[in-house]
Every structure is written in C-alpha cells, then in structure tokens.
Amino acid sequence: MVDARRLFSEQERHQISRWVAEAEGETCAEIVCVVASESGRYDRAEALLGFGLALLALGLVHGMYQGGSGSWGPAQALPVSWEMATLVVGFVLGNLLGTYFPQLRRPLVGQKELRQETLRSAHSVFTRRRLASTRQKAGLLLYVSLFERQMVVLADEGALGALGQSGVDEIRDLAQGALRQKKPVKAFEESIKRAAQLLAPGLPREADASNQLPDELVLIHPRP
Q: What is the pLDDT of residues 105-140, one digit of tens each?
C-alpha cells in the first residue's frame, strides 16, 4: 500500500500549502486538501482472497498426500483434521496477504464499491475537518484516495453556488487526469488554482476575512 504520509516531500507539502494560501487570497472560500492511503477496508475482497488460497492449499496438500502413496496403489483419503487445518491456515494467510499487499485484493473490488467507499470517506472528512462550519458556507474539500485512485471534490452550499456542478466536475477531472499520470502534486496545483479562478467572482475575498481552517495538506494513513 502506498503510504500517504510518505508520498510527498516536505517541500512539496509546503508548496501545496502555499497554493492554498494564495487561492484563499482571492476568495473567501476555505480550501482543504486531503490525501488518504485508502478509503475502505474491503473485508469481502480479503475474505475472497482467503477462500481462494484455502482451496488452492487444500488441492496442493491432497496432491502431495496422495502422491506419496505411490502411483500403483489406491488413493488415500486425506484425514479430516488435515483438511480443516489446511483450510484455516490458507484462509488466514490469504487475509493477511490482502491486508499487507492491497494490490492483491484490488482486482476483487468493483469500481462501484471503490467509488462508494471514496465518497463515504470524503463526506466523513468534510464533517470532521469542519468544512461545513465556515462563514458563507464556503468550504471546499479536495480529497484524494490513493488505493482507489480517485479524487472527490465536495463543496458546501456557498461554494457550490459559486462553482456550479460543472465547476466541481471540472476541478475533479483536472486532478484526476494528473493522478492518472502519477503526478499528485500537479493534481493539487491544477485543482487549487482552477478552484480559485472559479470561486473568486462569486465569493471574493473580504477585506476583514480571516483564515478559518488550516492550509496544510492533511495526510491520513491508512484510512479516515
């Protein structure tokens, strides 16, 4: 699993924070950037991997046991205790492999589930980071989930009014394109700067405005 805490250098984190500060110098919106290593636990995929490995192990043990009886003699039945032990060990090992090597379980997770878990986690972060408590309801969350390879943009009522759904989609698509190229810093640069351009006309910076939320990049491991 890619660890969100190790993906960015200190210089890159500071640069993203500066882009946020510069964007908030043009608009009263509050922009928060978050990167999570993953958004879901995906227990079902781990269980499927465990079942598959358990059956494979059982087949191998059967073959080894019967092969030891000699090709001319009758096949010997594997003791039930051996079968149970093999299934349990295979299942546990499969689960552990899925936990420590997420790339093994990713093919077992559908795109719909990946999207649902990413959206669920993004909404959780939106609430916990107080993006729904800003003045003028102008919170904007840029949330990247590495395992799912997805970007979610969530805007509070005021920010959504300034952006429109088309603006939200445009910001997301900009970042998503950079993520596909494995350029997460560029993803934030493009999405932050475009967000500022779209937000400023409807939510201009006020003379007495104060910074309500931290500008620092938030890194979450393993998941929100």
A: 888 888 999 999 999 999 999 999 999 999 889 999
Q: How far apart are CA 208 and CA 163, in angstroms?
A: 23
Sign for the CA dihedral angle at 92, 95, 97, 99 comes to negative
Q: Which of 16, 85, 95, 8 is nearest to 51 (CA)?
A: 95
CA distance 39 to 147: 8
> Can you give the pTM of this predicted structure?
0.83
Amino acid at 109: V
Instruction: Note whether 220 and 4 are within 8 A (CB).
Output: yes
Closest CA to 29 of 39, 42, 16, 20: 20
126 φ, ψ to 5°?
-55, -45
- Residue 65 backbone phi and psi in degrees, to 5: -70, -45
If you write DSSP's letter for every residue of the chain in order, what string do you get? ---HHHHS-HHHHHHHHHHHHHHHTTBS-EEEEEEES-S---HHHHHHHHHHHHHHHHHHHHHHHHHTT-TTSPPPPPPHHHHHHHHHHHHHHHHHHHHH-HHHHGGGS-HHHHHHHHHHHHHHHHHHTTGGGSGGG-EEEEEEETTTTEEEEEE-HHHHHHHHHHHHHHHHHHHHHHHHTT-HHHHHHHHHHHHHHHHTTTSBPPTT----S--SPEEESS--
Q: What is the pLDDT of residues 66-99, one digit of tens each?
A: 655 544 344 566 677 878 888 888 888 878 887 7
